[in-house]
Amino acid sequence: MALSNVLHAPAAGFNFDHAARNAELEGLFDAQIPKPVKTGTTIAGVVFKDGVVLGADTRATSSEVVADKMCAKIHYIAPNIYCCGAGTAADTEKTTELLSSNLTIFSLNSGRNPRVVMAVNILQEMLYRYHGQIGASLILGGVDCAGNHLYTVGPYGSVNTMPYLAMGSGDLAALGILEDGYKPDLELDKAKELVRAAIHAGVMNDLASGNNIDICVLTREGVHHIRPYQVSQYKDKRKTKYKYGAGTTAVLTEKVVPVKLEVVEETVQRMDTA
Amino acid sequence: MDSVPVNGVLRSRLIETTIMALEYDGGVVIGADSRTTTGAYIANRVTDKLTPIHDRIFCCRSGSAADTQAIADVVTYQLGFHSIELDEPPLVETAANLFRASCYRYREELTAGILVAGWDRRKGGQVYCVPIGGMLVRQPVSVGGSGSSYIYGFMDSNYKPNMTKDQCLELTAAAVSLAMERDGSSGGVVRLASISKDGVERRVILGNQLPKYSTH
């Protein structure tokens, strides 16, 4: 139990005190105020004839260092709904997990598959409530009884729906490919190739996007999450194994001290399994 | 909307725009451009800023995309509930007052400029303006958004009372096109709607079909 909670329980809901304090302090310091880590990304989605194709790169950066080369940016929301996340990695991860939990409970209660608009509305409500403090830009795609849907939800809670979308730091590069190549009612192969090309443009032209490309195809029949769809051509082979073999460190002495435990009290509780 | 940047990239999406609504005998005509910007980037070039609130009541949104979407959702719920309780179609004035109530109470936190337009049995076609700050005023013609500055003169000289529906549609299309020509924050396509006793008719005028105005 954290000591800070001993005196009073933390108030429910989100606390904006620090955000207000940071705003006040911004002008006062000479040194730069530490910024939360921006995770570069290229994510894209396209609605095609039979469903939706989502794509993402797999690089997670921590300033100039690649923190994760095989990061999963296409998150599971429901059997028929997946979500790509750009922005602060922790925010996108937790927001999509929360959404997924809520929709699972809904499914169990109602016996229905969730609809994409429901997911969008839940996300919009939550992100608007936090007034942009949750840095999540999400592309939601899914197939339900009402058709094939693709939505984007911004960090402040604005929603847009379009047949093709791109978000993240590489979105301008990806959008160029999408604007040029998109046609209504594409076939599956063309749609996958379009999304792959869009993410590839982001990978090539944005430093913060890179490594492999993941694709997720959603149709009425089911979901095909292909991870990775395209492997980075710049993968380097390790020159040697960096694992130390057994016996590398010499053992000088060995001392075994048994810890004596006594049985102080024994209680038996009957479990009623009838 | 100047907000605390949580990380270097986050910026709220704005509907700096051109929106317009005018009354004619028997209904209203509303029009808007289709551009949503995040800084200098056009986040959505085919936005629909004409949002239905009820069967015969629409609102035109300008300001912060998130704020106006949230307010419109709240008012849609409140008006729908009110209408079911009354068991009759709601008045445009009621919808306008609901917008004003939210926009005025939360005036410090919100950036929303809204035009409420619709038709009801009691007063026919009506246009109400709810600008930033939460004022409410009924006007026969109203323009809003950043592009509106460029077309006040056009509206003042070209609007005449008792125009027909088609004249109103033409005027709205012309005015929004002119504003889009001059205002960097407005562009895309022109979305039009006409609301009357018989229902709602929606129309889109694509970029290449816009009326052409050229000074040179």
From TrEMBL, chain A:
<keyword id="KW-0647">Proteasome</keyword>
<comment type="similarity">
    <text>Belongs to the peptidase T1B family.</text>
</comment>
<dbReference type="Pfam" id="PF00227">
    <property type="entry name" value="Proteasome"/>
</dbReference>
<feature type="active site" description="Nucleophile">
    <location>
        <position position="41"/>
    </location>
</feature>
<dbReference type="GO" id="GO:0005839">
    <property type="term" value="C:proteasome core complex"/>
</dbReference>
<comment type="function">
    <text>Component of the proteasome, a multicatalytic proteinase complex which is characterized by its ability to cleave peptides with Arg, Phe, Tyr, Leu, and Glu adjacent to the leaving group at neutral or slightly basic pH. The proteasome has an ATP-dependent proteolytic activity.</text>
</comment>
<dbReference type="Pfam" id="PF12465">
    <property type="entry name" value="Pr_beta_C"/>
</dbReference>
<dbReference type="GO" id="GO:0004298">
    <property type="term" value="F:threonine-type endopeptidase activity"/>
</dbReference>
<dbReference type="InterPro" id="IPR000243">
    <property type="entry name" value="Pept_T1A_subB"/>
</dbReference>
<comment type="function">
    <text>The proteasome is a multicatalytic proteinase complex which is characterized by its ability to cleave peptides with Arg, Phe, Tyr, Leu, and Glu adjacent to the leaving group at neutral or slightly basic pH. The proteasome has an ATP-dependent proteolytic activity. This subunit is involved in antigen processing to generate class I binding peptides.</text>
</comment>
<dbReference type="InterPro" id="IPR016050">
    <property type="entry name" value="Proteasome_bsu_CS"/>
</dbReference>
<dbReference type="GO" id="GO:0051603">
    <property type="term" value="P:proteolysis involved in protein catabolic process"/>
</dbReference>
<dbReference type="InterPro" id="IPR029055">
    <property type="entry name" value="Ntn_hydrolases_N"/>
</dbReference>
<dbReference type="InterPro" id="IPR001353">
    <property type="entry name" value="Proteasome_sua/b"/>
</dbReference>
<keyword id="KW-0888">Threonine protease</keyword>
<keyword id="KW-0963">Cytoplasm</keyword>
<dbReference type="GO" id="GO:0005634">
    <property type="term" value="C:nucleus"/>
</dbReference>
<keyword id="KW-0539">Nucleus</keyword>
<dbReference type="GO" id="GO:0005737">
    <property type="term" value="C:cytoplasm"/>
</dbReference>
<keyword id="KW-0378">Hydrolase</keyword>
<comment type="subunit">
    <text>Component of the proteasome complex.</text>
</comment>
<dbReference type="InterPro" id="IPR024689">
    <property type="entry name" value="Proteasome_bsu_C"/>
</dbReference>
TrEMBL record, chain B:
<keyword id="KW-0963">Cytoplasm</keyword>
<comment type="subunit">
    <text>The 26S proteasome consists of a 20S proteasome core and two 19S regulatory subunits. The 20S proteasome core is composed of 28 subunits that are arranged in four stacked rings, resulting in a barrel-shaped structure. The two end rings are each formed by seven alpha subunits, and the two central rings are each formed by seven beta subunits. The catalytic chamber with the active sites is on the inside of the barrel. Component of the immunoproteasome, where it displaces the equivalent housekeeping subunit PSMB6.</text>
</comment>
<dbReference type="GO" id="GO:0004298">
    <property type="term" value="F:threonine-type endopeptidase activity"/>
</dbReference>
<dbReference type="GO" id="GO:0005634">
    <property type="term" value="C:nucleus"/>
</dbReference>
<dbReference type="InterPro" id="IPR029055">
    <property type="entry name" value="Ntn_hydrolases_N"/>
</dbReference>
<dbReference type="InterPro" id="IPR023333">
    <property type="entry name" value="Proteasome_suB-type"/>
</dbReference>
<dbReference type="GO" id="GO:0051603">
    <property type="term" value="P:proteolysis involved in protein catabolic process"/>
</dbReference>
<dbReference type="InterPro" id="IPR000243">
    <property type="entry name" value="Pept_T1A_subB"/>
</dbReference>
<dbReference type="GO" id="GO:0002376">
    <property type="term" value="P:immune system process"/>
</dbReference>
<dbReference type="Pfam" id="PF00227">
    <property type="entry name" value="Proteasome"/>
</dbReference>
<comment type="subunit">
    <text>Component of the proteasome complex.</text>
</comment>
<keyword id="KW-0539">Nucleus</keyword>
<comment type="function">
    <text>The proteasome is a multicatalytic proteinase complex which is characterized by its ability to cleave peptides with Arg, Phe, Tyr, Leu, and Glu adjacent to the leaving group at neutral or slightly basic pH. The proteasome has an ATP-dependent proteolytic activity. This subunit is involved in antigen processing to generate class I binding peptides.</text>
</comment>
<keyword id="KW-0645">Protease</keyword>
<dbReference type="GO" id="GO:0005737">
    <property type="term" value="C:cytoplasm"/>
</dbReference>
<keyword id="KW-0391">Immunity</keyword>
<protein>
    <recommendedName>
        <fullName>Proteasome subunit beta</fullName>
    </recommendedName>
</protein>
<keyword id="KW-0378">Hydrolase</keyword>
<feature type="active site" description="Nucleophile">
    <location>
        <position position="17"/>
    </location>
</feature>
<keyword id="KW-0865">Zymogen</keyword>
<dbReference type="InterPro" id="IPR016050">
    <property type="entry name" value="Proteasome_bsu_CS"/>
</dbReference>
<comment type="function">
    <text>Component of the proteasome, a multicatalytic proteinase complex which is characterized by its ability to cleave peptides with Arg, Phe, Tyr, Leu, and Glu adjacent to the leaving group at neutral or slightly basic pH. The proteasome has an ATP-dependent proteolytic activity.</text>
</comment>
